[in-house]
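Q: What residues go here?
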């Protein structure tokens, strides 16, 4: 007697990577997502990865799922932005994109059941395919004094984009409970489709490769890896270093990041404060060397205004680097008692934390001891399990 075996159809889920490393933290997050896909043992999902930039090609060489590179059409990207500028209805945007956007046409040929967008992409509401989207932050609302998120048409772009994401997405991923509350406070969206997925340290931070470049680092230094945006708060940090120098003449801080945005302005500010001997700009460093800079540092100082949570403090935890960070939004919940906290608007508050980390070995040792609890909570295994569970249950 025979029997028929009925096999449930696998859900075909595409991960769309429309960015490159210039996107900073979002790029790192996207890397964590594709690593979760790589190690997924789901029996319900067939993952595929779609990417546009050549930068992803080497990273995807040994991935077990199918990968597709599609042409990063300038016309397609401009069309997506133009549709946002016009603020058309979602259905109208989808109709135009379906017929005119080469990127959308290529994606639709692959016929995924769902597309997951790790990076707040315009296409998340400009295709007819069911979408899952990430909202990393709403700082254009909560920190709109900073021109990088509010000047010219940026605020309008962002508002329309996030409203469209909220109304079109089957699920929305955020970085924390604070991030979830921000979305609920800002847009008309069902709380049951918002899922916190906490950040994890990027894989490269576990490398033990030492930096062999000819960079003359001071023997003892504070560390701040960040792009030179206004919201990264370099100026107040420099003022705090100036204050701390009154007590500790040997104070040093190392800045990394591409030398753009307000970099030249900061160079002049360093001269104005007479901190040329104490401040070291070393440019962008390769990811494989990042852990070495953390491990050699006395401490991480992270005065950013943006959140709700951030990735560099997690890198510091992995590398056993003590830290002081902005005590805002979701940072205290993310890091618990593994960090000192300061008011990022208060130069004295920042300086006091610097002084404590620079001079007090016992404080540094206690922070490292406390960080072990957080280290267990930010494991890649937990991240992967949570991500796959969210996707399977959509």
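A:
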């Amino acid at each position: 007697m025979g029997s028929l075996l009925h096999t449930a159809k696998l859900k075909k889920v595409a991960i769309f990577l429309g960015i490159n490393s210039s996107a900073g933290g979002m790029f790192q997050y996207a890397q964590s997502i594709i690593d979760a896909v790589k190690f997924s043992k789901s029996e319900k999902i067939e993952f595929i990865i779609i990417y546009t930039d050549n930068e992803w090609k080497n990273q995807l060489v040994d991935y077990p799922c199918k990968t597709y590179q599609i042409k990063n059409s300038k016309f397609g990207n401009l069309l997506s932005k133009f549709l946002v500028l016009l603020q058309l209805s979602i259905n109208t945007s989808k109709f135009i994109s379906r017929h005119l956007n080469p990127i959308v046409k290529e994606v639709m040929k692959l016929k995924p059941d769902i597309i997951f967008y790790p990076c707040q992409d315009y296409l998340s509401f400009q295709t007819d395919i069911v979408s899952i989207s990430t909202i990393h932050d709403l700082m254009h609302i909560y920190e709109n004094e900073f021109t990088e998120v509010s000047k010219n048409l940026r605020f309008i772009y962002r508002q329309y984009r996030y409203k469209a994401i909220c109304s079109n997405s089957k699920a929305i991923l955020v970085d924390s409970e604070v991030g979830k509350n921000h979305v609920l406070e800002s847009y008309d969206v069902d709380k049951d489709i918002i899922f916190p997925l906490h950040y994890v340290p990027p894989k490269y931070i576990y490398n033990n490769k030492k930096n062999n470049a000819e960079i003359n680092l001071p023997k003892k230094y504070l560390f701040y890896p960040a792009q030179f945006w206004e919201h990264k708060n370099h100026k107040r940090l420099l003022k705090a270093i100036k204050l701390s120098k009154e007590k500790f003449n040997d104070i040093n801080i190392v800045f990394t990041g591409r030398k753009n945005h307000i970099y030249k302005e900061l160079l002049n500010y360093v001269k104005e404060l007479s901190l040329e001997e104490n401040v070291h700009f070393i440019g962008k460093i390769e990811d494989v060397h990042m852990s070495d800079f953390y491990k050699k540092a006395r401490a991480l100082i992270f005065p950013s205004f943006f959140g709700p949570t951030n990735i560099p403090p997690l890198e510091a935890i992995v590398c056993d680097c003590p830290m002081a960070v902005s005590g805002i939004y979701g940072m205290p919940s993310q890091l618990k008692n593994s960090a000192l906290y300061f008011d990022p608007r208060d130069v004295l508050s920042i300086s006091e934390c610097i002084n404590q980390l620079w001079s007090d070995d016992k404080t540094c040792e206690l922070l490292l001891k406390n960080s072990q609890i957080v280290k267990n909570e930010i494991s890649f295994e937990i991240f992967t399990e949570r991500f796959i569970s969210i996707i399977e249950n959509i």
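A: Context that may help when evaluating the design: The mean pLDDT is 92. The first strand starts at residue 11 and ends at 17.
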